[in-house]
Amino acid sequence: MSAVSVHARVEARGLDAALDVAPGTVVALVGPNGAGKSSVLQLVGGQLQPDGGTVSVDGAVVSGPRVHVPVHRRNIAVLEQRPLLFEHLTIAENAAFGLRARGVRAAEALARAQRELDAVGCGELAGARAWEVSGGQAQRIAIARALATDPRLVLLDEPLAALDVSVAPAIRSLLRRRIRGEGRTALLVTHDAVDALTLADELAVMEAGRVLAAGPVADLLARPRTPFVADLVGVNLLAGTATGPDAIRLATGDRVVGVPADALGGGAAIASFAPASVAVHTAEPSGSPRNHLRVTVTGIEPRGSLVRLTGELSDGSRVSADLTLAASVDEGLVPGREVWLVVKAAQVALYPR
Amino acid sequence: MTLTTSARLGDGLPRWLFVPAALATLFLTVPLLGIAARVPWAEVPALLSTPSSVDALALSLLTCVVATLIALAIGLPLALVLARSDGRLAGVVRTLVTIPMVLPPVVSGLALLITFGRRGVLGAPLSVLGIEVGFSTVAVVMAQVFVAMPFLVTAVEGALRSSGSGFEGAAASLGASPSYTLRRVTLPLLAPSIASGSALTFARALGEFGATITFAGSLQGVTRTLPLEIYLLRELDTDAALALALVLIVVAALTVAVTGWFSRRTVRRRVP
């Protein structure tokens, strides 16, 4: 039985999503803006009603034809970018809020709240007010407040997006410990590959209101099949047609030779390679290496000690290459310039599509 | 937000702007100073304790408190509903209920008289049942609620709209029912705007003149509130009128101070 099962349509948002989550699994929903990730969360949380189909939690329909369990009866915790602590209550009263709303006596609720605050490292803030704590502390307290209700499911909508980069790693590891580490079922919306890799067991890739692919994080990231996942992982993805056991032909006519990760068959296939394995040449390379692509430079941007060059093939598909700053200056690499990108066949992974 | 340490004065503005600005300040303050200069300060206690003054003060206090309570009882729910509604119907209702705020009070009084007066649309059937509202203390309260309640509605609705529904959403996901959320989250967070909206409503009700005199008349101890008494006395007994006016000025100043304090308090709490 699935802990969460979404098979629902929301016409106004162009959403038609199918997703099943096994108990104790954390699923990261990834995809471009507007893909419908947050809508899926709202369908599960009850903030959004489907036009058709059903949403089930623990085998019971919570939204469907003539059924809509209201948000407050679903026992599903929500954590979003904003911690939304209640300003008129103390931190302890905030953490006890869910229990008090369920009719638990004040003393008992506050005792549980204190334990939850201790567990997120904010125990000493119990008497403070919401406007007296920092952004990172507020998000920790929001986590304590949500988990104090013993939710059967946790929905995380970019919980780290509004945090300072110096604070986010600590909150990420707190979430990892309290959500994934304690075997809770959760849905996570994120734009960050690190979040997906560290917090989730499975990945569901969404685009244009549909779930395109779902599966274990490692599988999907090792073989990214959509440009979005490729961007998420940071590898180059080129789509083409298999012309042999170890080669594909791109729409531009270029041939890309690589190592098949799966038997290619004869149909659509994808080549994937890391920007770091791409070399840049300003003249057509002699000795005809097996993979060389002629591109127009469209962007040069610093990435730490390196520079990432982005080039466009004649059909508009993009390839990135990482090189040293010195090399990019010496070679006079500026947008608009034509260059050849060379990548060794051994560095290219080929997947059937 | 922290207040700037050195007070600014017209920062970055052309200097000539100070001339019309000073003119506006003088125009709005000199008449009040004029009253202060003319008030027979030593006789104020005696002037305020004449039977007609005491009647007017007591009637105004009673009716304004009742009018403010009625506005809270029915205007606050209206503000909550409007703030959480969109669409044409909500827009139409919002427009209709704010009209009395900008309507000339005498027109409001006439509308109430035509509707609730002895031969009015609703007044006639009520009259058959033996209920007469026109020219009674009830009419005074009705006139005050009619002109003053929109101030509470707009103040609270505006505050609720700008604060968004995030806190209510968070409360619901924590398991709080809509009633529990209203009681423990929405209303406490709105307390500052409810307080300042109530103060504005009370002040507007206290100053009500046109609608009251049109709909309720001017009967000592029954419908003759402070503004009506002041109008009556302005030539007969100017000193008494000035003493009563002083009361209204003090209440007005208190209202401004209270609403200002609450709005500063809100700002301080929102921005750490």
The low-confidence parts of chain B are none
Separate helix tally of chain B: 12
Largest sheet of chain B: none
From the spread of the alpha carbons, the general shape of chain A counts as elongated
Predict the CATH topology of chain B. MetI-like fold
Return the domain count of chain A. Answer: 2
Assembly state (oligomeric): heterodimer
Number of helical segments of chain A? 9
- Main sheet: strands, sense, barrel of chain A: 6 strands, mixed
**Portion in strands of chain B:** under 5%
Strand ordering within the main sheet of chain A: 7-8-9-3-10-11
Helix content of chain A: 10-25%
Q: What is the CATH class of chain B?
A: Mainly Alpha
At CATH's second level, what is the architecture of chain B? Answer: Orthogonal Bundle
SSE class of chain A: alpha+beta
Q: Can you tell me the CATH superfamily of chain B?
A: MetI-like
Subcellular location (chain B): Cell membrane
Pfam families (chain B): BPD_transp_1 (PF00528)
Keywords (chain B): Cell membrane, Membrane, Molybdenum, Transmembrane, Transmembrane helix, Transport
Organism (chain B): Propioniciclava sinopodophylli
How is this structure best described in words?
- The complex is a heterodimer of chains A (353) and B (272).
- Chain A starts with a strand and ends with a strand.
- In chain A, helix 2 crosses helix 3 (106-119), helix 3 (106-119) crosses helix 4 (135-147) and helix 4 (135-147) packs parallel to helix 5 (168-180).
- Chain A has 2 domains: 4-222, P-loop containing nucleotide triphosphate hydrolases (Rossmann fold); 235-352, Beta Barrel (OB fold (Dihydrolipoamide Acetyltransferase, E2P)), CATH 2.40.50.
- In chain A, strand 4 and strand 5 (60-64) form a beta hairpin.
- The longest helix of chain A is centred in the first third of the chain and has 14 residues, at 106-119.
- Helix content of chain A is 24%, strand content 35%.
- The radius of gyration of chain A is 24 Å and the shape is elongated.
- A 6-stranded mixed sheet of chain A has the order 7-8-9-3-10-11, with helices on both faces. In chain A, strands 14-13-12-16-22-15 form a 6-stranded mixed sheet. A 5-stranded antiparallel sheet of chain A has the order 2-1-4-5-6, with helices on one face.
- Chain A has 353 residues and is an alpha+beta fold.
- The model of chain B has no long low-confidence stretch (mean pLDDT 90).
- Chain B is built from 12 helices and no strands.
- The radius of gyration of chain B is 22 Å and the shape is globular.
- In chain B, helix 3 (51-83) runs parallel beside helix 7 (137-163), helix 5 crosses helix 7 and helix 11 (226-236) packs antiparallel against helix 12.
- With 272 residues, chain B is an all-alpha fold.
- Chain B has helices spanning 18-38, 44-48, 51-83, 88-102, 105-116, 123-128, 137-163, 166-173, 178-206, 210-215, 226-236, 238-270.
- Chain B starts with 17 loop residues before the first helix and ends with a helix.
- Chain B has a single domain, classed as Orthogonal Bundle (MetI-like fold), CATH 1.10.3720.10.
